[in-house]
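The data are passed on as follows:
___
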Amino acid sequence: MNMMRTAMLLAVMTALFMGIGAMIGGTSGMMIAFVIAAGMNLFSYWNSDKMVLRMHHAVEVDQRSHPDYYNMVAQLARNAGLPMPRVYLIDNPQPNAFATGRNPQNAAVAATTGLMQQLTREEVAAVMAHELAHVQNRDTLTMTITATFAGAISMLGNFAMFFGGNRDNNNPFGFIGVLLAMIVAPFAAMIVQMAISRTREYSADRRGAEICGNPLWLATALQKIAGAAPRIENHDAERNPATAHMFIINPLNGQRADNLFSTHPNTENRIAALREMAASMRTTGSAGGGFTSSHQPSYNAPKEPTPPPPSGPWSARPKNDEPPKGPWS
């Protein structure tokens, strides 16, 4: 299903690309756009994940450089039955995370330093479990290719401002075509992004809660991230807005409503669904794979835990428990 969805997405993006080319340069512009789109299809499949990671200045880490973070992801990947993904850290104060890669065998997960500093260890684990759920659901290829194509379409629409007004370019739409290229095409690309972004988050929330073993960890994580993201600007995301749908919470300022123009579902709706899931797990006594915490059970809490103080993910421990090395060290 996901492969068919990706193929349809590529077809839609290619058609948009060709349509903009026709508006800017007529038949010749359409053919040039087709050649570019064909090249982008191949390039995006193999390299779009590297492009996105580079856009956000993500640095790969390993067990030696950031053992607790790396081992956390390794344990969660085992819980999910996934190959070990590449693990990245982004030096950014906004708490957030995303996953990328064309398949589970070539996947990567990335978290910001803000996520590490503002969430508890269990909440960080829940966020990374959510990202691994995207990998397991094979959402990452569609998400990453969409980011690449949507950014390119928006850029091509901007080029219309400079090249679309030439009377000698055989443009049958004239100035109206230029306006369509500049306004409608980027909007259409945004609509395609939203079409694949909204429903997949609920599915990843549910599977992520199963992987980490406690839906309430993810619920409190979403609450904290949603509260911090509008206040802390993510400069790389603002420069590359086409990648916003890849993050667990929209990293762009001022886009939190659950409506047609949102790249993510309403956070309160996601939290409510996770709390319902937690209540169901308490009733049935079921649990997911479970993330081993040094100071909290995988899942048997009779009520929602009190949110810990925002003093960093690895500090909320008993005094006799030596905290491991944090991933920001």
User: Anything to note?
Assistant: The longest helix spans residues 2-55.
